[in-house]
Queue: 2 jobs
Job 1
Amino acid sequence: MAGNPSPFSDVTETLFADKTVLDEEYQPSTILERDAEISAYTNALRHVLFGRNPQNVFVYGKAGVGKTAVTQYMLDALQGEAADREEADELHVLFHNCNGDSAYGTLRSLINTLRDVGPDHDDAFPKKGLSMGDALETFYGALEERGGTFLLVLDEIDHLSDANSLLYELPRARANGHLDRAKVGVIGISNNYTFRDSLAPKVKDTLMETEISFSPYDADELYTILDHRVEQAFVDGSCDSGAISKSAALAARDTGSARQAIDLLRTGGDIAEERGESVVTAQHIDEAQDRVQRGRATDKIRDQTRHGQLVLEAVARLEDAGESPVRSKRIQATYEEVARSAGTDPLTTLKSIQNHLGDLTMLGFLNRTERNEGQSGGVYYEYELSLDVEAVFEAREAIESQRT
Ligand SMILES: Nc1ncnc2c1ncn2[C@@H]1O[C@H](COP(=O)(O)OP(=O)(O)O)[C@@H](O)[C@H]1O
Ligand SMILES: [Mg+2]
């Protein structure tokens, strides 16, 4: 039977040789332009190779400047080296992203990783009913059982609202007699330097044993990083050097983020490919800016606490249903549904929802209008979304699908 020609028959991979190299999750095997940071890291972690206690490390810098990539690279390298050294204890790296989590949830997740079970498994540490002290005791027990050196990487630690308790206890576990066979080092990574000021002085002293700051990249540094990626990602000759310098220049001027620069390049490639063109040029990068901007809304949303995001999603749903502008009480009801369907216990007080609404307004996600109910009534606020509804839904989907 003669059907249509396949709608895909003309689609060929002309531009990209290996597009995964431009993915958000891609872990580069080569780190460029971060020699000083790498050597500071080497100094802090070298003790592990001699069976000594690791130093605690605090890493900070804006989003997209290589904090996670460099940390992962360092820990891979350290694990490789430690395996070859007699004096080194067995090294375990526990990596946790704290975004949307509490100190208790963080410990719980670390315990489950050690038990090698998912969060809903029968043997998983309970979600509630136990105290922080119980969680710490269980955690120490699990560390002792295995023994060796543990490096706890707490990425995006600035999202923990109650970081003090955790960060006070963990580095002192050995000195306080909770650990004997196990040694612990904490690596805290923050997008936000002011997080430091929210810590108790005693916590600062221990966690900030070594501080490594990551500055924004300039255009030359971004060019080097991009140029290297292009070699792997694109077919030879299909990415113009003008496209690379344009991406580097735009990202340097805006945020200094390698993530943004890579996004521009990938999106420019998409645009060229969609049009059936065989070379990505500076022009495509110019056009990519709008699309990437939308993607960056996702990053900004991702930087919010989990409940902040759920409140924002609730406002988006109401907007989508034609119900906005809308009052906080109504938002709360929708938020509760959103939270439940995301598998999270909702915050219970209207006040806490109003606090999130206030924060989201301040950050420019929402618009707030003051209303007056006339003589009898009081003053109240109505909220509406100042972002594109679809952008919020897309962002939330992307964020949820990345949660582990
Ligand atoms: N120095 C670098 N060399 C190579 N790739 C880098 C470098 N810095 C950042 N990247 C890449 O840029 C993106 C953002 O880096 P990431 O480590 O996630 O930033 P952060 O954790 O600081 O937000 C990632 O894709 C990462 O692989
Ligand atoms: Mg990161």
Job 2
Amino acid sequence: MNIKMNIDEILLFLDLMEKEKKTPLLDELKMMLYYLENYDEVKKFYKKVKENGYRLPNKFLAFSLVHFIENFEECIALKKEIYQNNTKRKYSDVFIQQILLSGTKEQAKETIEEAKGYGVLLKNTWADKYDSIREIIKRQEEWKRIIKEQLIENDNFPKIYNDFSRLKHKYFDNIPLEYIKGELSNRNQSQISVYTRSVFIKEYARRISNGVCQLCDKGAPFRDKHGNPFLEVHHIQYLSEGGSDSMENVVALCPNCHRRIHHLQLEADFKKVLEKAKINLNKNGE
Ligand SMILES: [Zn+2]
Ligand SMILES: [Zn+2]
């Protein structure tokens, strides 16, 4: 199964769980962390988790999240959080991360001393690895490799992703198209947050297409697990080229046409979908 969660989906997942009064499980947290792409996203994820009032298990903080902290002060803060009720456990990765983020060798040596106080014995050679983003990335990749192996072993990620899809569908099932359009067009007064916005845009494009590809005008080739026509959302002006994530700039395409439009980049296709996007704006919900 081809799964890839992006940051918007991850933040939405956390919010939908919160709505259902569920606390994310360790594997769910690991999966979300696995799909985060940079430190900025890690911070958004961590902030959302805290906003939702979850106290993350040390198992997750000290063995997973710590590898993705790329700022010295924030690493210290994480260490405090980990050790607030628990001084006996030996979390060596936390001190290693602190060393890798240290600005000087002196600071790194101090961390080795500090670690001893917690019963964590680190080799003095660690001090040579201060200020090493390369080593941090290496360790992040190693963590991801292990997670990926586990994923293949126990097939857990598809299950988690299914749970998320189910929550997402349940959420959108109760939201009429008009509401989505309203939220998306009242840019300033909108209640929806930045991340939900992009999820809303995707939902808008799929809803407005009514199950018909907006390039070849044929019905979706199959239905997804929830019984909805399978179409992909395409940004007419690519986001990477400054296109906006807005109603004027999206259409829903069948997988074939989606490939075609990216691959051939034909002017005629471009014009057609642009026209469709305009017409969409004036369409009303079923
Ligand atoms: Zn098509
Ligand atoms: Zn596309």
